[in-house]
Design brief:
mainly alpha; 0% strand; 4 helices
Length: 93
């Protein structure tokens, strides 16, 4: 880092260096445990659990069983239709 706070490298190089450093640290069990603990502490400190309850109160589909797996069923139907269309397009008449 430069004395003025700049990294003096392009954005792509910075992202590549960050990814490389993360992959190296990911192999260290001590670092992984510290990151897990840090994430849990942040979750408790910022009270995300209560915030999520408030957000879900405005979303009735989160509690209604008729909406469970709705997205999956719709996606399965769309994929089925697309596969059928692809089959018919590839048939030589």
């Amino acid at each position: 880092m430069m004395s003025d706070g700049r990294l003096n490298k392009c954005k792509a190089c910075t992202k590549a260096d960050t990814k490389h450093r993360y992959n190296l640290l990911r192999k260290d069990d001590d670092w992984v445990n510290k990151e897990r603990e840090r994430g849990r502490e942040k979750y408790k400190r910022l009270n995300y659990k209560e915030l999520q309850y408030k957000l879900n109160a405005n979303r009735p589909w989160r509690h209604n069983s008729s909406f469970k797996n709705f997205r999956k069923k719709i996606l399965d139907q769309i994929i089925l239709v697309l596969n059928c269309k692809m089959i018919f397009v590839n048939i030589d008449y």
